[in-house]
Design goal:
Blueprint lengths: L2 H19 L21 H5 L24 H12 L5 H21 L3 H4 L15 E2 L6 E2 L1 H13 L7 E2 L3 E2 L5 H16 L13 H21 L10 H15 L4 H13 L16 H21 L16 H5 L14 H5 L13 H16 L7 E8 L1 H7 L9 H4 L3 H11 L17 H7 L2 E5 L1 H8 L8 E7 L8 E3 L9 H16 L5 H12 L1 H6 L2 H6 L5
Parallel strand pairs: 5-6
Antiparallel strand pairs: 1-2, 3-4, 5-7, 7-8
């Protein structure tokens, strides 16, 4: 550089420096802005001379923050996940049935190519040493992708358990994260070398206890707090619940568990867009798998040293409450315990969105009356469904187009119409090319089924002592005859009908196993599932090996 150029550069640098140090205009001289806060120089800015040739390093560390108290909601969650001992025999026994039922639902989903195309390693042929097994396949994956795969097959058919309150959801979705981590930890620790999770070897009993906790966190959060009303999807709670229990599974301290939970709350939350017309699509079937993989990933990051955000919920402007919840804080009906698992709902009879279960059962009962009268679905003029508010809000789609599988399995009119027309409702009735989806009678009848809210049904739905999901069908025939209303308040999988449901749950599990394994192996799995004490002692990796298919 010439001396003239050097002098010119120096002058421009000094000018720039004077401009930087010039005092800011007073607030009265600036354009009016709401809640204006004058800018202040940080110690870092005032201590460092201006340089025209040097940029601020992108990895510069901020000054350490003073210790902060975590939001109480996160403190309580982390304390429960870390310290609570599951002592409820009812909860553990119920978890056993949930465990078997959920695995069976995952196997059933493997019969659908739209599901299986999403599974497996990112790079075809990849096998991860000591990796997670995916039931019904030969995949061996890292625990993050394993959680996605298991979570996706579990949720695909909307046939696993259910929890209905201010927010609804499917707490057994969390098994995707729990199983993936337990399997991977066992195999890694048995292989020798670097130990993880304190050299823990998980048994099925451990998995059931973690299921109780995940169910409880998701379910208690859902009792009073409606995320759907602000457009957020219930899989948010899967991510938070899975993060809470996986943190403990990986040996994180209670403080690290708080960090991990805060990461789950700040993570971008799924919107319900993919569950509603005109955007209904298959993402609703893998959204829980996505939540599971994010939970495991966040826990592993905290295990590797990542911190947390103490006021991620309550921070003004930037916290979850202000950004996502209209400034409202969470409310809680009860402390965490084992209530949710003890009262969880099973989907026993039909692969259908849970708010429709009793309506479909009512239609099946009415079919018997029609048959005795020599009548069929073709003789029906119209149907009125007296129902609860949540059913209307979520699955009342009388005149909306049925564009795909996701539309049909979340339309109460379609599901009831199929039952009237074929006296069945199966997963095979939802695809575009199915007999039911292409039936003119199903479509015509669907548009003649209307829903009306009964405020008492809605009140009973939210009543902690009942939690019924009532539907009542009144059928008017073309000859002018009106049949007596058929009311079903509690579906077969409800707590009030639990003992009646247990044989059916095991029969459902058996049906889902049979297409995948030899008769002798199916018997072995069913017998083990029925032998609670033997099942509880089985190590998770050995149990998962029983579901591997070549």
């Amino acid at each position: 550089m010439s001396s003239l150029a050097a002098r010119s550069f120096a002058r421009s640098t000094r000018t720039a420096a004077r401009q930087i140090k010039a005092p800011l205009a007073s607030s009265s001289q600036l354009p009016r802005r709401a809640a204006f806060t004058p800018l202040r120089q940080t110690p870092y800015q005032t201590a460092r001379a201006f340089s025209a040739t040097m940029l601020t390093k992108s990895d510069a560390m901020a000054a350490p923050k003073a210790p902060q108290e975590f939001d109480k909601e996160i403190v309580d969650m982390a304390s429960y996940a870390t310290n609570y001992k599951v002592t409820s025999d009812l909860a553990i026994d119920t978890a056993r049935f949930v465990f078997l039922d959920t695995l069976g639902c995952g196997l059933k989903a493997l019969e659908f190519p739209q599901c299986t195309k999403l599974l497996g390693p990112v790079v075809p042929g990849t096998t991860v040493p000591n990796g997670t097994r995916v039931p019904g396949t030969n995949y061996v994956l890292d625990p993050v992708l394993g959680a996605f795969n298991i979570g996706t097959i579990i949720r695909w058919l909307d046939f696993n358990d259910c929890w209905l309150a201010a927010e609804w959801g499917h707490p057994s979705d969390n098994l995707g994260a729990i199983l993936a981590v337990a399997d991977w930890v066992n195999r890694t620790n048995k292989a020798g070398g670097e130990k993880i999770a304190g050299d823990k070897i998980f048994t099925v009993k451990d998995v059931l206890e973690y299921m109780v906790k995940a169910h409880e966190i998701q379910g208690v959060m859902a009792l009073d707090n409606s995320f759907n009303e602000v457009g957020l999807d219930h899989v948010l709670l899967v991510k938070v619940a899975s993060t809470s229990v996986v943190a403990n599974m990986l040996g994180l301290s209670e403080a690290q568990t708080r960090d991990a939970i805060s990461q789950a709350w700040v993570d971008g939350q799924s919107m319900r867009t993919y569950r509603h017309t005109p955007n209904t699509m298959s993402r609703k079937s893998w959204a829980a798998g996505d939540a599971c993989q994010k939970a495991v990933n966040l826990c592993l990051k905290v295990l590797g040293g990542e911190g947390g955000m103490p006021t991620v919920l309550t921070a003004p402007t930037w916290g979850f409450y202000d950004v996502n919840f209209h400034g409202k804080k969470f409310s809680f009906q009860r402390e965490y315990g084992a209530y949710v698992m003890e009262n969880v709902l099973f989907k026993v009879s039909y692969p259908a969105e849970f708010h429709s279960q009793t309506a479909i059962e009512a239609a099946q009962r009415i079919n018997k009356k029609l048959k005795s009268m020599g009548k069929t679905a073709e003789d029906i003029e119209e149907v009125t469904n007296r129902t609860h508010e949540a059913c209307i809000r979520i699955i009342d789609k009388q005149f909306k187009p049925m564009d795909n599988y996701a539309d049909r399995d979340h339309c109460v009119q379609y599901m009831v119409s199929v039952m009237f027309c074929y006296n069945r409702l199966e997963a095979g009735d939802y695809p575009d090319n199915s007999e039911a989806a292409q039936s003119p009678l199903v479509e015509s009848l669907r548009q003649r089924i209307k829903c009306v809210e009964d405020p008492q049904f809605t009140k009973d739905y939210h009543d902690p002592s009942k939690r019924t999901i009532s539907n009542a069908l009144t059928v008017k025939l073309k000859d002018g005859t009106t049949l007596e209303e058929e009311v079903v308040e509690a579906p077969l999988g409800h707590r009030l009908r639990r003992e009646e449901a247990k044989p059916e749950i095991l029969a459902k599990y058996l049906r889902h196993l049979e297409p995948h394994f030899a008769k002798e192996h199916v018997k072995k799995l069913v017998d083990l599932g029925n032998d609670a004490e033997k099942l509880y002692k089985t190590e998770v990796d050995e149990y998962m090996d029983m579901y591997v298919k070549s």
